[in-house]
Description:
Strand content: 15-25%
Shape: extended
CATH class of the largest domain: Mainly Beta
Structural class: alpha+beta
Helix content: 25-40%
CATH architecture of the largest domain: Sandwich
Largest sheet: 4 strands, antiparallel
Amino acid sequence: AIKEFDRKHKxxxxxxxxxxxxxxxxxEKAKRELSSTTQTTIELDGLHQGIDFSTRITRAKFENLNxxxxxxxxxxxxxxxxxxxxxxxxxxxxxxxxxxxxIPKVQELLQDFFNGKELSKRIHADEAVAYGASIxxxxxxxxxxxxxxxxxxxxVTPLSLGVEVFGEAMSVxxxxxxxIPTKKERIYFTCEDNQSAAKIVVYxxxxxxxxxxxWLGTFSVAVPR
Length: 225
């Protein structure tokens, strides 16, 4: 939409943060409408420098613009199954969670990926996470009702945890999806002889080089002589 405005009116809207914010809200509204209709219109009066903006977008164009993002959704599903060491053919039910699962193309790709399996919509997509959180809260509170007492919850690390070693390399101590709490031990050696202390830099992420991971903290430990 920004590129279309710039092209039509020869005016750079990107520096107008208020206008970009209004346009983002309008695009979000259009995205939601395209889940139930095949085309919609984005209209904003006096968007930038008094210029009105209007454009029509179809569901087909929306799907084409976001094709790479939709494909990443399937890559994420594949990654989850791989981490769980589970074949998609043994999945009993596919529950849609989150507002974006209402997008027809997302549902189509998911259904194709799971070999035509019917997608479950019995839980409100916007409330599914809250349902899970409430069940966990009940378990933590000690609720022993029939509905929750036999449920087992595992909290895991979403990303690998490790420390930086020589060459800015990431040495993973706790791989992602490890149930927590957990404890890991590993022996490391100093880079130089007679060091009095070692700096420990902790990172979170999956990249081989720490510069591409998320820094969590730094501390020092004394090296016994």
